[in-house]
Structure formats: C-alpha cells, structure tokens
C-alpha cells in the first residue's frame, strides 16, 4: 500500500517537471531583486527560502491559519518558522471546490485546501 507521503512525493516529481518546464521558463524582466517567486496561485518562495502561502478561507477558530502552514512545511521539508500566511484576494482560482464559492463553512477549509 502506498503511503500519503510516497504518493505526494511521486506526484510532486511528475508534476514538478511540468511546473518547472512549462510555468517557469522565463524570468520576469520587471521583478525586483530578492522578490519572491510565485510557484502557483498559492505558494511563493523568497530568496531567503521563506515560503508564503495564500489562504482563501476565513479563520473562524477552525485553525486553518496554523494547519495549512504546518502541512506545507512538512511536505516541503522546511522549518515551520519560515512559512508565512497571507489571505488570498478575491478570484476564481481561490474558490472552495467543496462549496462552489470563495466562502468558508462546513469544516471544509483544511480538506479543500489540502486537495
């Protein structure tokens, strides 16, 4: 039986080649020195290896502001103190797939964010 970690590492390697090969081929001529590189709509990595994740859910006591950075730190194998959270702006990419809108409810924040 494949563990969750093995599955994620395998899919990250397979998908990572596509991300690097397709999404990051050009350097932005207008980016500032030391500016964070956006890997996708959710994750940015700065030159000092600080990881910033965008959270599209409201924190209403369910712990999404702590649980998402913890999961990201574990999967990227970085120190939790190097992971920061910013709230996502309105946008279609940040829609909750379980509820069909950029909304928080039904204890779906971590489950939907993890997917």
Properties at a glance:
Aldehyde Oxidoreductase, domain 4, four-stranded mixed sheet, 3 helices, globular
Can you give a write-up of this model?
- The chain has 115 residues and is an alpha+beta fold.
- The protein has a single domain (32-114), classed as 2-Layer Sandwich (Aldehyde Oxidoreductase, domain 4), CATH 3.30.365.
- The chain is 34% helix and 13% strand.
- It has 3 helices and 4 strands; from the N terminus they run H-E-E-E-H-E-H.
- It has helices spanning 4-23, 64-76, 109-114; strands at 37-38, 43-45, 51-55, 83-87.
- The two termini are 20 Å apart.
Average residue pLDDT = 68
Approximate helicity band: 25-40%
CATH architecture verdict: 2-Layer Sandwich
Low confidence ranges: 18-31
Structural class: alpha+beta
Strand order of the largest sheet: 1-2-3-4
Number of strands: 4
Q: What summary fits the major beta sheet?
A: 4 strands, mixed
Query: How many angstroms separate the termini?
Result: 20 Å
Helix-strand string: HEEEHEH
- Give me the Rg, rounded: 15 Å
What name does CATH use for the topology?
A: Aldehyde Oxidoreductase, domain 4
- Helix count equals 3
Shape: globular
Instruction: Determine and state the CATH class.
Output: Alpha Beta
Number of domains as seen in the coordinates: 1
């Amino acid at each position: 039986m494949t563990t969750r970690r093995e599955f994620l590492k395998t899919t990250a390697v397979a998908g990572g080649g596509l991300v690097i090969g397709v999404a990051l081929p050009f350097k932005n001529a207008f980016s500032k020195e030391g500016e964070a590189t956006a890997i996708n709509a959710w994750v940015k990595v700065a030159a000092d290896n600080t990881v910033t994740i965008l959270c599209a859910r409201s924190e209403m006591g369910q712990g999404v502001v702590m649980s998402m950075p913890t999961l990201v730190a574990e999967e990227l194998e970085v120190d939790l103190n190097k992971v920061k959270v910013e709230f996502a702006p309105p946008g279609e990419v940040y829609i909750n797939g379980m509820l069909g809108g950029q909304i928080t409810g039904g204890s779906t924040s971590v489950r939907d964010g993890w997917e």
